[in-house]
Amino acid sequence: MVAEMNGKIGGKSLHWAELGFEYIRTDARFSARWREGEWSEGELLASEIMPLHEGSPALHYAQQCFEGLKAQCARDGRVLLFRPELNADRMREAAGRLLMPVVSEALFLRGVEAAVQANREWIPPFGSGASLYVRPMLIGVGDNLGLRPAREFEFRVFVSPVGPYYKQAGLAPISLAVSEMDRAAPRGTGSFKIGANYAGGLLATQCAQRQGANEALYLDAVEQRYIDEAGSANILVVLRDGSLVTPASAAVLPSVTRRSIMRLAADRLGMVTAERPIDLRAEFDDFVEMGACGTAAVLSPINRIWFDDAWHAVNPGQSGGKGSDAGVGPVMQELYDLLTGIQQGEISENYGWIHEVHLS
Ligand code: PLP
Ligand code: COI
Question: What is the mean pLDDT of the chain?
Answer without folding.
Answer: 94
